Amino acid sequence: MNPRRTPRRSRSRLAAVGLSAAVVATLAVTYPSSAGAQDVHAAASVTVRPDPSYQQPAFEGWGTSLVWFANATGGYPDAIRNRLANLLYGDDGLRLNIARYNIGGGNAPDVRDDYMKAGATMEGFWRAPEGTTREDVDWWNPDDPEHWDLSADANQRWWIDRIKNEVTHWEAFSNSPPWFQTVSGYVSGGFDASADQIRADRVDDFATYLVRVSEHVERTHGIRFDTIDPLNEPNTPYWGTQLGPDGQPTGGRQEGAHAGPALQQSVVLALRKAMDASALDARLSAMDETSPTIFRTNWNAYGAEGKAAVDQLNVHTYGTGHRTSARDIAKGADKPLWMSEVDGTWGTGQSFTSMEPGLGIAERIVNDMRELEPSAWLLWQAIEDYNPQAAAGKNWGAIQVPFDCPSDATPVTCPIRTNTKFNTIRNFTHFVRPGDHVVKVNDTASLAAVSADGTSATVVHVNNTTEPRDVTLDLSRFGTVHANASVTPVVSDVNGGLVRGKAVRVADRSATLTVPAKSVTTFVVDGVRGAAADAALVQPGHTYTLNGVQSGKALVPSADGNSVVLGTADQADANARWRIEQVTGGSGNRERHTVRHDNGKRLADRNGGLVLEEGTQTDPAAQWIMSTTGDGSYTFVNAATGRLFDVVGQGTGVGTRVGVYVANSGSNQRWTVVDRTPRTG
Question: Which candidate, 135, 136, 182, 311, has a CA 20 to 30 Å from the CA of 96?
Answer without folding.
Answer: 311
